[in-house]
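Input record, target 12 of the design panel.
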């Protein structure tokens, strides 16, 4: 202790909790059972990692080609869901190499071709593999800001169809920031779009979800700039634009 308990299968941190003392054990089990997806009853119990930051390393496995890596994506999580992501993330060259080696090994063992969102923690004592998605990753929506020659969705489509991806190149630096709903409802409408769409070097995607609930991700603000620009400044712009939009529902 402390340790993290997770259902074997879930998403967005659902059913996940931290055991700090013995009194938390039963609660953690019950919470995992109520938040799980599928009918597995087992849970994962893993050490709590005191990391400084986390990254997603989008990794593409190909039918007839090399395994490729996208520039690392940094992200910040709250309540088990990402709030902002940015690309490229700051990481030491030797740590990136280590992460790439782990991602290549894990995805090769899983077999198949497509994009994987491989998550790592960057801690003072090195790089920890966390988990992976066998598909495009939510934090990878930053690639919709044109940060790469192909977005994560385009890469996935090519790889799944067995078409070649000769290389992945970084075209811009970018960031994404989420726009959340705050209550249960239907038929959401969006306010502040005029203002939010009036910024240069930015874009906005609305997901078209038919219903809302507290903290449900409804849209994302995207920002970008030339390669070499200050990524923190690009991230701050995405956060500011996301704040200009509010979601109302009935
Ligand atoms: N062992 C750990 N130590 C510290 N923090 C952790 C640990 N495991 C998970 N977390 C935190 O909780 C977040 C969500 O965990 P994880 O990625 O395993 O859940 P998930 O349900 O797959 O979520 P998502 O589908 O959103 O990726 C992590 O990004 C990290 O911030
Ligand atoms: Mg995760």
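The sequence produced for target 12 reads:
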């Amino acid at each position: 202790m402390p340790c993290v308990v997770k259902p074997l299968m879930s998403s967005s941190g659902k059913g996940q909790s931290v055991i700090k003392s013995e009194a938390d054990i039963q609660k953690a089990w019950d919470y995992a059972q109520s938040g799980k997806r599928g009918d597995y009853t087992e849970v994962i119990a893993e050490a709590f990692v005191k990391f400084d930051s986390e990254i997603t390393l989008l990794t593409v496995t190909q039918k007839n080609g090399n395994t490729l890596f996208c520039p690392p994506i940094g992200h910040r999580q709250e309540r088990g869901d990402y709030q902002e992501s940015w690309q490229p993330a700051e990481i030491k060259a030797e740590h990136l190499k280590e992460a790439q080696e782990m991602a290549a090994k894990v995805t090769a063992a899983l077999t198949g071709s497509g994009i994987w969102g491989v998550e790592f923690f960057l801690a003072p004592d090195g790089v920890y593999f966390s988990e992976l998605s066998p598909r495009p990753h939510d934090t990878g929506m930053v690639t919709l800001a044109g940060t790469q020659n192909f977005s994560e969705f385009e890469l996935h489509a090519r790889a799944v169809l067995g078409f070649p991806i000769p290389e992945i190149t970084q075209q811009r630096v970018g960031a994404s920031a989420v726009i959340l709903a705050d209550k249960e409802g239907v038929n959401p409408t969006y306010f502040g779009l005029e203002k939010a769409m009036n910024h240069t070097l930015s874009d906005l995607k609305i997901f078209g979800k038919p219903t809302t609930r507290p903290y449900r991700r409804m849209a994302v603000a995207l920002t970008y700039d030339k390669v070499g620009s200050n990524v923190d400044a690009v991230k701050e712009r995405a956060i500011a634009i996301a704040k200009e939009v509010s979601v109302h529902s009935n």
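Residues 53-248 form a domain with the D-amino Acid Aminotransferase; Chain A, domain 1 fold (CATH 3.30.470.20).
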